[in-house]
């Protein structure tokens, strides 16, 4: 099968977008049996350690304020998380994962790990660590500093 490509054979933006879309779709299918979405999974995973506000979780998961409220409404209604007043800021709410949320999160983590293992199995052993290391360096470095207009410091 040929990978569709709108541009050059090594069109980085298209290839990363295609890979991301495919992974998100498989992740969503796997999590659907638990009644959660990939966004729910991200919020639960980041909230597990405790002490984070809705706003902080939204930033960590790349979720805007309105979407975060809807996401937390869903997680609370499902009994997976709860919002509690912050002891240091009366305007803020901390997000806690419930016991039921912990159980669902454990299952979600297993699904995500299985998907990752399955996807990486498509690469030869010698390429897996190199691939992961390269993507981590990009995301933790050059691609971590992107704003709506381009790289940090660029002028719109």
UniProtKB/TrEMBL annotation:
One Pfam family named in its UniProt record: MarR_2
| Coiled coil regions in record | none
Q: Which InterPro entries match?
A: HTH_MarR-typ (IPR000835), MarR/SlyA-like (IPR039422), WH-like_DNA-bd_sf (IPR036388), WH_DNA-bd_sf (IPR036390)
Task: Pinpoint the HTH marR-type domain residues.
Answer: 9-140
PANTHER family according to UniProt: HTH-TYPE TRANSCRIPTIONAL REPRESSOR YETL, TRANSCRIPTIONAL REGULATOR, MARR FAMILY
Q: What is this protein's name?
A: MarR family transcriptional regulator
Organism annotation = Micromonospora fiedleri
């Amino acid at each position: 099968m040929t990978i569709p490509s709108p541009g050059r054979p090594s069109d980085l933006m298209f290839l990363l977008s295609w890979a991301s879309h495919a992974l998100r779709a498989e992740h969503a299918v796997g999590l659907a049996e638990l009644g959660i979405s990939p966004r729910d999974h991200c919020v639960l995973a980041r909230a597990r350690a405790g002490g984070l506000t809705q706003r902080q979780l939204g930033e960590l998961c790349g979720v805007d304020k309105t979407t975060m409220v809807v996401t937390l409404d869903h997680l609370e209604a499902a009994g997976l998380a709860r919002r509690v007043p912050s002891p240091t800021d009366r305007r803020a709410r901390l997000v806690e994962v419930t016991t039921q949320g912990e159980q669902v999160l454990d299952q979600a983590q297993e699904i995500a790990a299985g998907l990752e293992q399955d996807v990486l199995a498509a690469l030869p052993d010698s390429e897996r660590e190199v691939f992961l290391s390269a993507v981590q360096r990009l995301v933790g470095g050059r691609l971590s500093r992107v704003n709506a207009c381009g790289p940090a410091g660029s002028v719109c």
